[in-house]
Amino acid sequence: MSEVFEGYERQYCELSANLSKKCTAAAALDGEQKKQKLFDIRTGLDDAEALIRKMDLEARSLQPNVKAVLLAKLREYKSDLNNLKSEVKRIASGNLNAAARDELLESGMADALSASSDQRSRLMMTTERLNQSSDRIKDSRRTMLETEELGVSILQDLHSQRQALLHANNTVHGVDDNISKSKRILTNISRRMNRNKWIVGIIIAVLVIAIALVLYFKLAK
Fold first, then answer.
1. Nearest to residue 103, comparing CAs of 68, 82, 159, 94?
2. 92 with 66: CB under 8 angstroms?
3. What is the distance between the alpha carbons of residues 123 and 75, in angstroms, rounded to a whole number?
4. Of residues 120, 109, 95, the one with CA closest to residue 24
């Protein structure tokens, strides 16, 4: 999962919990104090909305399998933010007297806060499940990368072996060429030796004939 997304997510969860506490406090206030508290809450809501936009942009820039998981988280966070906005509207529009406000704090607000707490618990459980899914996706991705690296290593080994075989083949061809050259040289030497034998034989024959003629003429006188 993206570390950038996780950073925005932590900020949002902390801000959401803080805004929920401020809503509880604002419901018990009157006049200017209540207005100031609501102003702070609305500022926090703007910050929360900005964080959700950043998470959305970051999630959409990632790979499809990771993006699907993160966008599912975002839907939960957007629902949580809408609940906070609705709660702020109810607090801001409630011009109740002290008795009605006390009754609200004892009954209705308690139910609303309980519902909000339950929803936040469900949100955290959903986030946990999505985190587990993200971990499984990361494990699968890690396995895929390791398999890919192993495949690349095997291909490199095969390439090295192919180069070695090509080198050996070239060496064999070189030896064949040298043998062929040696055969040609030996053939030429053999031919020259045979030619020299014929020349020497002819010379010897001529000398024998010349000696015989010389002896013949001497004996004839």
1. 94
2. no
3. 10
4. 109
Q: Nearest 5 degrees, angle CA 75-CA 47-CA 60?
A: 40
Q: How many CB atoms lie within 10 A of CB 108?
A: 14
d(CA 219, CA 212): 10
Which tokens go with 217?
């003429």
Query: What are the tokens at 75?
Result: 């839907």
CB 4 within 8 A of CB 59: no
> What is the phi-psi region of residue 125: left when phi exceeds 0, alpha when psi lies from -120 to 50, beta otherwise?
alpha
- Whether the model clears a pTM of 0.85, i.e. scores above it, the answer is no
> Which residue, 201, 18, 207, is CA-closest to 120?
18
- Rg (the chain; Cα; Å): 50
Can you tell me which residue has the tokens 């939960």?
Answer: 76
User: What's the pLDDT tens digit per position in 146-192?
Assistant: 777 877 778 888 888 888 888 877 787 777 788 888 888 988 888 88
Residues written for the chain: 221
